[in-house]
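WARN retry 2 of 3 for item q-0093 after timeout on previous attempt; input resubmitted unchanged.
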Amino acid sequence: MDEKIQKLKEIIDGSDNIVFFGGAGVSTESGVPDFRSVDGLYNQEYDYPPETILSHTFYKRNPEEFYRFYHNKMLFPDAKPNAAHKALAKLEKKGKLKAVVTQNIDGLHQAAGSETVYELHGSVHRNYCESCGKFYGLKDIMAQKGVPKCSCGGIIKPDVVLYEEGLDQNTIRKSIEAISNADVLIIGGTSLAVYPAAGLIDYYRGNKLVLINKSSTPKDSRADLIINDAIGKVLGQIVE
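OK item q-0093 returned
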């Protein structure tokens, strides 16, 4: 076993108060692409960059184009949890992992069996009518073409945080509480470039900060252990 992997295993074995903070890189191994990795495909298919389409203003002004992008680029109903999701769920069952704080909206942590999951940016699995508040699941959204409509006639909005929208304060509070009380904070699959979510790790007060990411991050200088590799590959080796 690699020296860094061995060190991470020792850190995990020695703690029962771990919090995991993750981003898009956690789900890419499940076939869910990071929409910020803009390629020529977007430029050919859409007249606007993803950040513009996924803004509250754009959603209100042009719901048809918003939902065309949302259906094509944000929904992956057939994606399955990978080794990272499964490893984290196992750590929670063992009583070691206290919470997962995620920037992802795909629900794969819950699908793997994780129970305490704080979704900073919402979830594609929760959708609400803007007129009457009726709840709709992902299958309901997938079943409708174009802009999904409620039985009352109102437009259904996904419970995901769009650009220009604020994060849910209750979710932030619980995330900060978990991170600030953690003995070990493992950060994986995120460039730590998206705020305010990335700023939450500044609440960590411990001395076992682990960064697992394919590339460097702005917080590397603070980390006690850095592993530049795929998160599923790393955690899959540690949690048998």
